[in-house]
Amino acid sequence: MKVLLPFQAMNQYAEHVPLAYRASACGPVTAASILRYHEGVAPGIGPLYKMLGTTPIGLSAFCLIRRLKKLTGPRYDIKRIRSIEHIKQQLDAGYPLAMKFDRYFSVRWRQKTTFAYHWVPLIGYEETADDLLLFIHDNGQKNRPSKLRAVSLRENQGVLSFIQISPVSKLK
């Protein structure tokens, strides 16, 4: 089975992202792109970067959850998800997730992973015979827009965190 949501990506190196924040703006850009998916409009990356408590070394999952809950209030259900079945249910229902690669704080420095430390929108999956492919947007680079990528759950397991950001009114 394959699920791929119609998702418009954002680029953390775009002109509207303050220059000083671009290298570490993947968390706010991921959150903003998911909010835009649900609401049709995204918050400004500069203000969101500050509101979420992002630093030059990145954004923790704890800060993303806690501060995004304060920002969105009761309109959104924002929480960490650990079950692959729950992740697939969210995607099946049409809800993208925030996904973080983190070799450093998961103490897996030498594990070969797609990214060492990076937030991305998770917008789909495909089950294969021996793996689960996760479809993400990579939030771009300095000289190119975000692109859709398929990454292996098996190869990245142990360094991934998944955050649900779902509108409460649509949940059931």
Describe this structure in words.
The protein has helices at residues 26-39, 45-51, 61-72, 84-92, 153-156, and strands at residues 2-4, 76-81, 97-102, 117-127, 132-137, 148-152, 160-167. It has 5 helices and 7 strands; from the N terminus they run E-H-H-H-E-H-E-E-E-E-H-E. By secondary structure, it is α+β, with helices and mostly antiparallel strands. Strands 1, 2, 3, 4, 5, 6 and 7 form a 7-stranded antiparallel sheet that branches. The model has no long low-confidence stretch (mean pLDDT 92).
Main attributes of the structure:
5 helices, 26% strand, alpha+beta, 172 residues, 7-stranded antiparallel sheet, globular
Compressed to H and E, one letter per element, the order equals EHHHEHEEEEHE
Tally of DSSP helical segments: 5
Label the overall shape: globular
User: What kind of oligomer do you see?
Assistant: single chain
Percent helix, as a range, is 25-40%
Number of strands: 7
Helix- and strand-based class?
Answer: alpha+beta
Strand percentage: 25-35%
The largest sheet, given as strand count, sense and whether it forms a barrel, is: 7 strands, antiparallel
Could you give the distance between the termini? 22 Å
Rg over CA atoms, rounded to whole Å, is 15 Å
Residue runs with pLDDT of under 50 for 5 or more positions: none
**Overall mean pLDDT score?**
92
